[in-house]
Fold:
Amino acid sequence: MDSIASTYATAEMEYIRHGDRGLMLTLYRPASPGPHPVVVDLHGGAWCIGERAECRVRDETIVAEGVAVAALDFRQGADAYPSSLADANYAVRWLKANAKALGLDAARVGLCGQSSGGHLAMLAAMRPDDPRYAAIPLPAGSPAVDASVRCVGMMWPVINPLSRYRNILRAKTLDPVPAWVADLKERHDLFWKTEAAMAEGNPVLALEGGQQVALPPAMWVQGQPDPVHDYRDPDRASGPNEPERFAAAY
Structure:
């Protein structure tokens, strides 16, 4: 990583404050002259645990390609839905508003994340103007910017929280209970509170329901079969899906 590290610089900065609690981001900036496109990176952890440093390897790889990365800490767990979305939405606007000072290109901002962070990235991209997500105003005097993004990258996202939750409930009836179940039910319950919230904050159901949402170009990376998700979604109102598998070698 030493050769990669020589191609970028990092800065730690507080991007938002909730009462006496400040939230930080790590900004990875290429050493080359800007302004640089920037990706906002959201960590995973079933919406309840995790922090921005966990994304370091991915972020170093991205910045080595000339793209800046802002890895966020954000509210999670008992802060509950939609707090994480509000912080992500604010971060996109904050970076756009401060792009010139930070050497960034406000016209080229994207989102990415893994697992629950992939879900948050996609949902934030689809609903940049949702009044709940955009509820936190920028400081007075900030330029007028929105939270729209140019692209989304998802790594094994929890793209349908309700389907994953019901898959967990089914798995808990097995003997033995699969090890992957762990405390996932409790994390869903802590953040989402209800199945209705899991259905509402759901990229898949938003599309299936015909909601008018933004659809920037998106990439979904799934390295191997994932037992945590049942992509057939047997509880789907219109009947189960029939997933197709596409294999690619790199």
In short: DSSP finds nine helices and seven strands in the chain.
